[in-house]
Amino acid sequence: MGNDTFELKLYSPITGHLMEDNWDEDDFDVSFYDYEGTPLSPYEMTAFEDVVHKAIEDEKMPEEAERGLMEYYWGEPASVNEKVVSAFVDAEVYNNELWGVLKCTLKEPLTKEEIAALKEYATGQYSDGYGEGFEQRERKTEYGELYVHFWHSGDDYSILTEQELKGPQIERAQKSTKSKARHLSRDAR
């Protein structure tokens, strides 16, 4: 990222379903399984972080090489498309949960309205665009076939900025850095 760009990360929980290789139809228990297999929470999905990273790499399209998902932006306000250089999908573990991360490179900071529009766009991509195709392709694991979801319809689904997700941790890190800098400047005297 150049000096004249900014980074904005948007986080959303990753869930999944695992179709075990060895499940027996006679042992099918609806309380633990649904039609898509064993549901996996963002916490349980941390065990499949490497599989998710490889799947993200496998999904990259040539036309998305420069701008990522911003290649398809059509929304309003149009200023979002002008300010956001690129938006690439990634995943990371934070607080013992696997999160989808839309890593956005910006020409200039976004307003609250523009961030809301970008979140709405990401939600649409995860539910009906990028994410819909992504979740329909099984990923082979040693336990069976894994289906990965960047979006779900539950009340607990949201897309958060890094500040919204990690705010208290970021503030503590900034205070710690400032405190160390003050100590170093005092020691240098």
Detailed description of the structure:
By secondary structure, the protein is α+β, with helices and mostly antiparallel strands. It has one domain (6-161). It has six helices and eight strands. Strands 4-5-1-8 form a four-stranded antiparallel beta sheet. It has a four-stranded antiparallel beta sheet with strand order 3-2-7-6, with helices on both faces. The longest helix is centred in the C-terminal third of the chain and has 26 residues, at 162-187. The two termini are 35 Å apart. The model has no long low-confidence stretch (mean pLDDT 87).
Q: Which short descriptors sum up this protein?
A:
189 residues, alpha+beta, 4-stranded antiparallel β-sheet, 6 helices
What's the layout of helices and strands?
Elements: E1 6-13, E2 15-20, E3 38-40, H1 42-45, H2 49-59, H3 79-83, E4 84-94, E5 97-106, H4 112-128, H5 130-136, E6 139-141, E7 144-149, E8 160-161, H6 162-187
Helix pairs in contact: 4-5
